[in-house]
Amino acid sequence: MSTAMTQPRTVSKSAHAQLVRAAAIGNFIEFFDFTLYGFFAVVISKQFFPAIDHTAALLSTFAIYGGAFVMRPVGAIVFGHVGDRIGRKTAMMVSVVLMTVATAAIGLLPTYAVIGVFAPLLLGICRLVQAVSAGGEQTGSYILVMEQSPVHERGRHGIKLLTYIMFGVGGGALVALGVTSLTTPAQLHDWGWRLPFLFVAPLGLVGLYMRLRLQDSEAFRAASQELARLERKPIPLFQAFRTAKKQMAVLFCWASLIALAGYILIGFMTTYMIEFQHFSISESLVVFGVGLMAAIPVVNQIGKWSDRVPRKTFALVMTLALLLWIFPAFILTQYGVFTAIIAIAVFAVILYPMNLVAGFAIIELFPVDIRASASGLPFQIGFAVFGGSAPFIATWLASSYSAIAPAYYVAGFAILILLVALRGLPTARAMETISVSVPEPPERAVVSAAEAPERP
C-alpha cells in the first residue's frame, strides 16, 4: 500500500460542533430505538407473540432483535460504496431517512390480535430496514467527524459521537419511564409503548436538515479527484480485500467485543433486572436513565485522555477495566436500585470509550478511498454475529445456568479478543490520515504532495 499522508485543515469550533451534531443524530436515533426495543421487550412480546408461553415469547422478541442484525453487513456494503464513491454526506442522509421511517413505523404496527402472524412479520421487516440503515450509520459517523479532526484531537471529537449514543440510550430510558409513569398497565400494553417510537419522526426530519448542510472532507475530495483520473476505478470493497485484509480482521475482532458488551448492556440488562432480579419496569428505567446520564461527564474526560496516550495503551486499559467490572456489574444489580445505578454507570464509563478505539482504527488503518467499505463490513459483521445474538444468548444462559452466567461469556470473549486485536490496532498516537490505496498502475494512484490538502 502506497500512501500520501495528510492532515485535515483546522475548522472553526462552531463548524466542527455542527458537524458532530449532524453526524451524531443518526446514532442517537438508532440507539434510542434499539434501547426502546430492549426496554419494551416484555411488552412487545405480549403484543406480537401472545399465542406462546412467556419465555418463548420473550426469546422470539429477542430473536427478531438479533435476526435483524444480519442485514447490517448488507447496509455496510451499500452505504460503504456510496460513501466511498459518491460521498460521506449522501450516505449519511439516506441512512437517517431509512432509520427514521422504520422506527416510526414500529409505533404504527397492528398487533397479533389484529392481523395474526403478519404482525411479527411486519415487525421483523421494520427491524431489517433499521439494520440496513445502521450498517452505514455507525462507521459513517466516525468517518464524517474524525476525518476532519486533527490527529491529536480525534479522541475528544470522537467521544462526542458516543455521548450522543449515551443520550440516545439514557434518553430512551427516561422517555420510556415517562410513558410507563403516565399510563396504566393496560394503557401501556395497548398504546403507550408506541409513543416513544413515534417520537423519532420529528427528530429524523431535524437530522436530515442538518446533514443537508454538511460538506465532505478535504481528504475525501482529494482522493476523489485522484480516482477520477483512473481509466478503471476499482470497486472499493474489492480493493479493500486486496489491500487491507489484515486491518479488516483486526477491526472485526474489536467490533465483536464492543458489540457483545454493548448489547449486553443496552439490550439485555433491563430484561435481566425485570425477569431475574424482579425490578419493576419503572425501577429498571430509572437505573438506566440515571446511570447513563451520570456516566457522560466521565466518558467525556476519558475521551480527552485518549488523545494523550498510545492507542494500544488506551485499548488495554479499557479492556482490563471491562474484565474487572463485568462480574460486579451483574452482582450489584441484586441489591436494589442504588447499587444497580452504580453498576450501569461504571459499565457505561468503560464501554463507550472502548467504542472510541474502533473509531481510531477506522480512520488510522484504512485509506480514504476505501475507508467506508473496508471498515463498514467487518465492523457490522462483528455487530451482526455478536451484538445481535447477545440478548438472546444472555437470556438463555441466565435462564439455564445462573443469573451471573452472562458475565462469564463477556469475560471469556474479552480475553480472547484482547489477545487478537492488540497485535494489529494502531500503535502511534501521531499516525496521520492515509490518503489513497493503490490500484494498478501504482504510479497513477498516489496523491502527490501538491495535490494533497495542506497542513494547518
TrEMBL record:
Where does the record place the Major facilitator superfamily (MFS) profile domain?
Answer: 19-429
Q: Name one Pfam family in it.
A: MFS_1
**Ranges annotated as spanning the membrane:** 20-44, 56-79, 91-109, 161-179, 191-212, 249-273, 285-302, 314-332, 338-365, 377-397, 403-422
Taxonomically, the superkingdom here is Bacteria
* Keyword Transmembrane belongs to the record: yes
Primary residence: membrane
According to its record, how does it sit in the membrane? Multi-pass membrane protein
Xref: InterPro entries: H+-coupled_symporters, MFS, MFS_dom, MFS_trans_sf
Protein name (Swiss-Prot/TrEMBL): MFS transporter
Give the organism, scientific name: Sinomonas puerhi
The major lineage groups are:
Bacteria, Bacillati, Actinomycetota, Actinomycetes, Micrococcales
